[in-house]
Specification:
Radius of gyration: 21 Å
Protein name: mannose-6-phosphate isomerase
Distance between the termini: 22 Å
Pfam family, one: PMI_typeI_cat
Oligomer: single chain
Number of helices: 10
Strand content: 25-35%
Organism: Microbacterium galbinum
Catalytic activity: D-mannose 6-phosphate = D-fructose 6-phosphate
Family: Belongs to the mannose-6-phosphate isomerase type 1 family.
CATH architecture of the largest domain: Sandwich
Shape: globular
CATH topology of the largest domain: Jelly Rolls
Helix content: 10-25%
């Protein structure tokens, strides 16, 4: 069975007013358009062209959620639990209503995710930077009293990143937050050498979230710039935030998010710190294959798999195993299954049920193929 899926963009405040419209070749709606969900998640199941929603077909059992994501402003800094942590947290909060503002866990699943850039530049904060490198970054700031305090904290013994996160987010940092932000903004206006791009990115965050402790948390994180077709995998426990750009995102079917700044929403600091992995290090960028080839973005989880195919006009047969989605992201694409075919507009999905074993793709364009992992 082959189904044509669409969905309406979600109007989160951080969404772009232009990126999704430009991708789909339509006029902007005039409102922020942040995410388009293609899945059977009860929060927003995809629409089936002709009537109904995908959850009525799948019973809400898809292990993954595929999205288009368009960010004009930074998303909140966040972390996701492991499967064991999610199960324990869900059980612990079983007495709370799902809409209770004190609830942290919306389900019992983990939420690893993969983002692949569609825009020529996609900015994110991904993981905590090695402390020695952050101290080099701090050297680019004027040594004001607040900057000196931050440097001293990062030069202490023990798990200084965890201690600094707690200091920033529980309110203990006080006026030091504003002082560090001021120093970052000032430094971003000059030449800070290798740190210039990072400081300008954090200064832009400060423009959106003035006085937010998350701006200083961002100073501790890797500033990652993806080019079109490049991806980043975000495992459980990894602190991260998307800053700007258009991308394809796929994740385990979960809504579990613990926030760590850049948000007016509640931050449960003890719970956040119980999940975050403060081991620092660079997050590897997943590179695309040469044009015309199939790129597989390898991820170490069984919930999902993602491939990118650039179609050059020659028909391409793709074996599929399990409930599969084909998302068109450029050009003109036709998807054929055993008994049906769909001329797929950019920004829409062809969904193949698990009785399909092979899909035939034709046209000139680009598609992403999502499926369960192994």
């Amino acid at each position: 069975m082959l189904l044509h899926l669409t969905n309406a963009p979600r109007d989160y405040a951080w969404g772009s007013e232009t990126l999704l419209a430009e991708l789909e070749g339509r006029a902007p709606s005039g409102a922020p358009e942040a995410e388009v969900w293609f899945g059977d998640h009860p929060g927003d199941p995809a629409d089936v062209v002709g009537g109904g929603t995908l959850d009525a077909v799948t019973g809400g059992t898809l292990p993954y959620l595929l999205k288009l994501l368009a960010a004009a402003q930074p998303l909140s800094i966040q972390v996701h639990p492991t499967l064991a942590q999610a199960k324990e947290g869900w059980e612990r909060e079983s007495g709370l209503a799902l809409d209770d503002p004190q609830r942290n866990y919306r389900d019992a699943n983990h939420k690893p995710e993969l983002l692949v850039a569609l825009s020529e530049r996609f900015e994110s904060l991904s993981g905590l930077r090695p402390v020695a490198q952050t101290l080099q970054l701090i050297d680019a700031l004027a040594p004001t009293a607040a900057v000196v305090v931050l440097r001293e904290r990062l030069s202490a013994e023990g798990d200084v990143l965890r201690d600094t996160l707690e200091w920033l987010l529980d309110g203990s940092a006080g006026e030091a937050v504003d002082g560090v932000i001021d120093a970052v903004v000032t430094a971003s206006r000059g030449d800070a050498g290798e740190w210039s791009d990072t400081l300008r990115a954090i200064a832009r965050i400060a423009d959106t979230y003035p006085g937010d402790p998350g701006v200083v948390v961002a100073l501790l994180m890797n500033h990652l710039v993806l080019r079109r077709g490049e991806g980043v995998f975000l495992r459980a426990g990894l602190l991260h935030a998307y800053l700007s750009g258009l991308g394809v995102e796929i994740m385990a079917a979960s809504d579990n998010v613990l926030r760590g700044g850049l948000t007016p929403k509640r931050i449960d600091v003890p719970e956040l710190l119980s999940l975050v992995d403060t081991a620092p290090g660079l997050v590897p960028v997943l590179r695309p294959a040469e044009e015309g080839a199939i790129t597989t973005y390898d991820v170490p989880v069984p919930d999902f798999a993602l491939r990118r195919i650039v179609l050059d006009g020659s028909p391409t047969s793709v074996p599929v195993d399990g409930r599969t989605m084909v998302l068109a992201t450029g050009g003109t694409v036709r998807v054929e299954g055993a008994d049906a075919a769909i001329d797929l507009p950019v920004g829409a999905v062809a969904y193949a049920s698990d009785d399909e074993t092979e899909l035939r793709l034709s046209g000139l364009g680009e598609v992403f193929i999502a499926s369960p992992g192994h």
